[in-house]
């Protein structure tokens, strides 16, 4: 059976990534008008025929989060009403993923609400990367292809791997990810025990593992204020670490994050272009996930497995 013709569109949240993905696929980015009325309402018009096509809409729901999400939902609805054969929401970063459970009385599970909205709008499939919680896949009753940024990170980190490296999780929740990195890189494993005092402040309590005289790699899926990373890096320095790098899939850097990174506790922040990143002259290395996403889109369009994209070459 011949695969439906492929078309890729983008909202406004990360158009440069969408254009780079299309370059890897070898096709132009689809033409669509995505703008706002004076009162803030989003308006979308798809300027190409998509009837019977396999449509991919690239839109990480990053800052401005609510506008990015609405643009994505409206684009899905527009493609659905234009008789697209299948609509895949490509979300390199899935916003609201941290609100994935009821950890206090009378709070919502917004990650589930977003899943419901995407399906209600007309999405037939989700392609995303490094969800904050893997269980979010279970919020959907449609297929979810969940990619990992680790192959992109490992290719860059190969130059640093060795017996002197220690991979450290900045909190208990990231131990599984840290263990995977340590196993691939042939490094030792450590952990920071932390206590969060509020949404923007983290008080680091203790470090588990020997980091004296070691090159430390902190790994996490997301950073916004860099509080966790900055505190973990400081305690690594105080414990005698030679260098401290951080590998973070999604860098949603706020003004306070840049202030903390400027303190110099972290030698290099390594992240991806899943969301737009302004380095501001700081030691921030942005790795591209465009090739990874392009391969996944082509494989999904051809009804092929995406499992091989998880394999790490050269390790």
In short:
It contains eight helices and 14 strands. The two termini are 36 Å apart.
Structure characterization notes:
This protein is an alpha/beta fold and 315 residues long. It folds into two domains: 6-148 and 290-310, Rossmann fold; 151-287, Rossmann fold, CATH 3.40.50. It contains eight helices and 14 strands. The chain has helices spanning 15-25, 65-81, 110-121, 150-157, 175-185, 227-238, 255-261, 290-301; strands spanning 6-10, 32-36, 42-46, 54-58, 86-91, 125-129, 144-147, 165-169, 188-196, 202-208, 215-223, 243-251, 268-272, 284-287. Strands 10-9-8-11-12-13-14 form a seven-stranded mixed sheet, with helices on both faces. Helix 1 packs across helix 8 (290-301). 43% of the residues are buried.
Describe how the helices and strands are arranged:
Layout: E1 6-10, H1 15-25, E2 32-36, E3 42-46, E4 54-58, H2 65-81, E5 86-91, H3 110-121, E6 125-129, E7 144-147, H4 150-157, E8 165-169, H5 175-185, E9 188-196, E10 202-208, E11 215-223, H6 227-238, E12 243-251, H7 255-261, E13 268-272, E14 284-287, H8 290-301
Parallel strand pairs: 1-4, 4-5, 5-6, 6-7, 8-9, 8-11, 11-12, 12-13, 13-14
Antiparallel strand pairs: 2-3, 9-10
């Amino acid at each position: 059976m011949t695969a439906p013709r492929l078309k890729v569109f983008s909202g406004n949240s990360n158009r440069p990534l969408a254009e780079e993905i299309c370059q890897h696929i070898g096709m132009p980015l689809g033409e669509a008008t995505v703008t706002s009325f004076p009162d803030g309402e989003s308006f979308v018009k798809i300027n190409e025929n998509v009837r019977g096509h396999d449509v991919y809409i690239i839109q990480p729901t990053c800052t401005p989060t609510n506008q990015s999400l609405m643009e994505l939902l409206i684009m899905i609805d527009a493609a659905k009403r234009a008789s697209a054969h299948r609509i895949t929401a490509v979300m390199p970063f899935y916003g609201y993923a941290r609100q994935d459970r009821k950890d206090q009385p009378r709070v919502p599970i917004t990650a589930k609400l977003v899943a419901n909205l995407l399906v209600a709008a007309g999405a037939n499939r989700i392609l995303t990367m490094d969800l904050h919680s893997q269980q979010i896949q279970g919020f959907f009753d449609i297929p979810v292809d969940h990619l990992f940024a680790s192959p992109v990170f490992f290719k860059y980190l190969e130059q640093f791997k060795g017996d002197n490296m220690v991979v450290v999780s900045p909190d208990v929740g990231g131990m599984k990810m840290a263990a995977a990195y340590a196993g691939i890189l042939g490094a030792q494993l450590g952990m920071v025990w932390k206590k969060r005092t509020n949404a923007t402040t983290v008080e680091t309590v203790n470090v588990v593992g020997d980091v004296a005289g070691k090159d430390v790699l902190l790994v996490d899926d997301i950073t916004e204020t860099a509080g966790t990373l900055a505190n973990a890096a400081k305690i690594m320095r105080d414990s005698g670490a030679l260098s401290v790098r951080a590998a973070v899939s999604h860098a949603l850097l706020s003004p306070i994050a840049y202030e903390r990174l400027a303190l110099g506790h972290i030698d290099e922040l390594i992240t991806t272009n899943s969301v737009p990143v302004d380095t501001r002259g700081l030691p921030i290395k942005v790795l591209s996930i465009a090739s990874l996403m392009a391969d996944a889109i082509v494989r999904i369009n051809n009804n092929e497995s995406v499992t091989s994209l998880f394999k790490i070459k050269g390790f």
